[in-house]
Amino acid sequence: MTPEAGRSALDAAEFEALYERLRQVPGWGAADRRGALNHLTPDRVLAAAGEIRLGRTVSLAASIETAVTPDDPSPAIHEMAGPPGNQADPGGLTFAQDRFGINVHSNIDSHIDALCHAMYRKKLYNGVSADAVTAGGAQELSIEVARDGIAGRGALLDIPRLRGVRWLEPGDRVTAAELAGAAEAQQVSIGPGDLLFVRTGHRLRRRALGPWDAARARAGLHPAALEFIAERKVAVLGSDSNSDTAPSLAAGVELPVHVLAINALGLHLLDYLQFEDLVPLCEATGRWSFFCVVAPLRLPHGTGSPVNPVAVM
Fold first, then answer.
1. What pLDDT, in 10s, does the model give residues 249-304?
2. What is the rounded distance in angstroms from the CA atom of residue 292 to the CA atom of residue 143?
3. Checking phi first, is residue 286 left (phi over 0); if not, alpha (psi -120 to 50) or beta?
4. What are phi and psi of 79, to 5 degrees?
5. Disulfide check for 4: which of 64, 132, 178, 224 has CB 3.0–4.6 Å away?
6. Beta-bridge mates of residue 137
7. What is the pTM of this model?
8. What is the pLDDT of residue 82?
9. Rounded to whole angstroms, how far apart are CA atoms 226 and 4?
10. In three state form, how does the secondary structure of 56-119 look?
11. In this predicted structure, what is the pLDDT of residue 273?
């Protein structure tokens, strides 16, 4: 029985073996900086446009929050930079203005991780030295890699639906067998160039029961489930959690899925999305695939970006 099948954590040797296997998968050459985005060929993007049947658009992002909560001790800052309406010029033009400050890699706000985000043993994706990340930002593998946007076929696998529950409990893990089972139950294929989204019900649980310290307890993928994703040549991976189970399921590695996805496979990760607006539409149409557009901000040296992915049904 594999560690995943037994739903147990990986010891150091098992994780290292898995990391080395997955690190050999990309094969795009020493100069590659796009990682799994290479699977998104023009032909696949064109084919993905055929997923549009209704002309309906749905956001996969959660609203940015500014209140201190157990899962967001350093929330985004929103300040008004212009006068309020009661101070507007009664005889002329006045502009409403504001500004934001945000911790991109928080445990609450929807964001995308760049390929420079996960340093493992002083290396980034494809063997790039971690020294490429300086005090001035990432000099290689920044979110600028995705500056032209990411567009392709999205597919949502709903694990609570598969299990017959409202949500997964913090600390629970999703196996490769469950990913395959959800795909079969929902009659949706997962293949090369797909943007794969995995629902754990994190957002619904938070809304129903209130925030908790998600850094310490969180449902996510079992690290061995990344082999399912690698075999299917997925281009982007996203979740309503951050894809990693907490506590960690790999000895000595706090966020093993981040290491395997970003550092080994070159996958951009989309963290803390929300699928509660998308699921009813998928259920009503009986379709769990859609055209999807992801547009990170142009941050030349950024390790990630706030993001609002949009599903087009």
1. 999 999 999 999 999 999 999 999 999 999 999 999 999 999 999 999 999 999 99
2. 18
3. left
4. -125, 140
5. 224
6. 134
7. 0.94
8. 87
9. 11
10. CEEECCCCCCCCCECCECCCCEEEECCCCHHHCCCCCCCCCCEEEECCCCCCCCCEEECCCCCC
11. 98
Q: Quick one: tokens of 103?
A: 């911790």
Q: How far, in Å, CA of 178 to CA of 115, rounded? A: 27
Paired sense of beta strands 137-138 and 173-174, if any: unpaired
Distance, CA of 88 to CA of 278 (rounded, Å): 39
* Contact predicate 164/304, CB 8 Å: no
The pLDDT value recorded for residue 240 is: 98
282: tokens are 């998928």
> Six-digit token pair at 69?
């909560």
**Structure tokens given for 84:** 């309020």
Dihedrals φ, ψ of 237, to 5°? Answer: -125, 135
The residues near 14 (Cβ < 8 Å, ≥ 6 apart) are 3, 250
Residue type at 150?
Answer: I
Q: What does the alpha-carbon distance between residue 64 and residue 77 come to, in Å, rounded to a whole number? A: 10
